[in-house]
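Quick question: what would this complex look like in 3D?
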Amino acid sequence: MTPPFQLIAETAGGGRLGRLALPHQTVETPVFMPVGTQGTVKAVAHDVLESLGAEIILGNTYHLYLRPGHESIRRMGGLHKFMSWPRALLSDSGGFQVFSLNALRKVTDDGVRFRSHLDGSSHFFTPEHSVDVQIALGADICMAFDECTEYPADRTRAQESLRLTMAWARRSLEHFCAHRDEVIWRDEREGRTQSLFGIVQGGMYRDLRRACAERLVEMDFDGYAIGGLSVGETRELTLKMIAEVLPLLPKDKPRYVMGVGYPDEIEQYARMGVDMMDCVLPTRAARHGLLFTSEGRLNIKNKQYAEDQNPPDPACDCPVCRRYSRAYLRHLMQAGEPLSGTLNTIHNLAYYLAIMHRVRRSLEAGSSADVGRLTPNT
Amino acid sequence: MTPPFQLIAETAGGGRLGRLALPHQTVETPVFMPVGTQGTVKAVAHDVLESLGAEIILGNTYHLYLRPGHESIRRMGGLHKFMSWPRALLSDSGGFQVFSLNALRKVTDDGVRFRSHLDGSSHFFTPEHSVDVQIALGADICMAFDECTEYPADRTRAQESLRLTMAWARRSLEHFCAHRDEVIWRDEREGRTQSLFGIVQGGMYRDLRRACAERLVEMDFDGYAIGGLSVGETRELTLKMIAEVLPLLPKDKPRYVMGVGYPDEIEQYARMGVDMMDCVLPTRAARHGLLFTSEGRLNIKNKQYAEDQNPPDPACDCPVCRRYSRAYLRHLMQAGEPLSGTLNTIHNLAYYLAIMHRVRRSLEAGSSADVGRLTPNT
């Protein structure tokens, strides 16, 4: 039942080099996971993602459940086959989107009633249903159904939200354990099946975060996520919550911080011992013309780039920086050309993936400033 | 001054296999040229175009003049450098867009006053100015400034329009001959420079078309285009006009039919002796979900493809057909994903380019049904 997570090295600062052997791909950690909400990382073809070294990407349960529908995806062999992505996939629980995209949702202990943002139709998600949908999708990693506590939330509200998340975590796990072997590709993968991660919530209250983490660890998930961060709080607070939770998590399970972050953040968290991260930032910012570079953020729309023939990032070796100039990328954006989003996204993803690559090599070589004696753990 | 067009073989039906040695690329003809209006073939990255075998693409003078501006492009080394496209380029004269995108244009013998579709600013294009802009862009092939006669047009109107086109052709050629050596990349290309093609107009009147062709040939252009077709007339009429003009054109110059056509049309015209064609159809139709396949046209939006796991065209070897299913392409379209336009366009362009490849091989092998004795002409 445990996903084969192998911890290869650990630094004094807590940074971990690992290897996560998922049914569809062995993933080197720490890893950044591009977001492919509707079964596509927006504007980027799969062969490009592969050439950039993306080993695992996300799909959103909420979106895929509504369109094209999880039953349809199962009939076509699961999400990997449907979207022709042979490497690893992670599906979220749908909870975050139900809460963020539905003003009229109604939450009870049993689950959440919400209206589709596509056609207004009424739907009801329970922990069991979220797990059923995720088994139908067949991602390598599934997430427990949780409530992402809003920010700010007072202590009473955060406690009540956490109570729901804990009850739903237990129900998610029970239902998952009873049905995890039903995933459609199990026989093709020598009986290997999906993993389920629990999600630590608790708002911005350290004791609630601790209590949540401890109880989830008792339940024995395949991995642990820290959710409800990057929701409007200061970065200092984000860091504090991550630092509070990480030491409570078992060393032999992967640790995933959801929805982060800026380039320096993902590097910082990776060096603290976070194994997995995802964020729409590099892809969404790209479509708005914001490029992340070794020289800082670059808004490609700016007039100053109109005749700038330098690559977006002179220090970057990605296919976009090797071929195209800032002037051309600015022109594509100004002209509203679809290639604009594609090229900007390729660069930003390459930049994010290169950060993780560099961090992994640094953890491996022990060359990082904060690396102590490597602790083999295999 | 003559572009080195080499006629390799000719069939009894008139089909010609040729080789057009342009400064940036030797192009095998008959060739289909994808349209890259704003300096980009919409939604497709250049490395993909190269891998599909595109040897020459179009840029639109009207669009590039307005944005980012031809002077800006010249300062950056010309259109090839600006857009990082090392292969051949052809620029149109801007005339067609001035006429099709401007309801309020004002035509005089001198030129056309029009308003920018972007910001309403007023501009004046003359044959000389069109040539200046095209020399600044620096495409391998430029087009004479013409008036694309609307359809239907009565004989008086077609005659008057043709009078303008003829006068403008002469002025375009004179101005071009005086300035063709000013193209910015001339020194890098061992003194080789741009070519200018004349455009045969004359509405749907055979005698006007003949008169136009004969006078343009006297002027001695580097190549000849047939314009003003595919503007609403029947396909029979299109064919009649092409058949009327082709025999009048010199054998040792390339022949270009502008703005055609459907897959069977481009094959038919190529087998009649047309060397070059361009059309927005494969790219524009793709973005609307219309795929051209060996089994006919396929509207990928149709519900019948919702769970169809076949490739778009089972007989096609393009990167899209090798990897993705109809169901996935339909999903991308339904979900409004940008990858939809990209993948659909790649398939359609691959399909068009494969037709031309097949026709060339057929002309070469003399295996076409209408191939007579090959007439070497080198």
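Answer marked as accepted. Chain B has 14 helices and 16 strands.
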